[in-house]
Amino acid sequence: MKKSLLWTAVSTALLAGASLTAQAQEPQGVYSAEDILDADVYFANGSGEEIGDVDDILFDDDMRITGLVIESGAVLGLGGREIVVANDYFTLETSTEGDGETEHRIMLNATPEEVEAFPAYDRDWWEQTQNNAREAWQTTREGAQSAWQSTREAFDNDDEPQTQAQ
Asked: Residues 14, 20: contact at Cβ < 8 Å?
């Protein structure tokens, strides 16, 4: 059931145009998370160098894609590093193979140095990201409360509304 809900959420987010930009031939219009997971990731600079593959897709509370988890440098599934790539660093390319099969590739718009600096996808990253989201929400909430309180006080300080003499 949980997996079914995840696929439904992923499909909904992808249908809503969630930050994956399709390029190459004709866009599909609908993308399956199952097809994108394990898609190969390459540098977009034309070198053709493969970085790794998509290990996970990250969403915010509104089910918008915020990034991908890329497993890079893995050899036979061992020793790879999982990195977080924000959605402004990648695009999705689709192409149709000779056998009619659709292939998805993630093109990373970053230098090797930038990729090295991307955060590792680990418990520390996850906790820090959650804390940042909570702090942003609290700041927004406090700002909204402050604006509401200021408006309320301004109206409370006004005299009774005056009627116009006729």
From this structure: yes
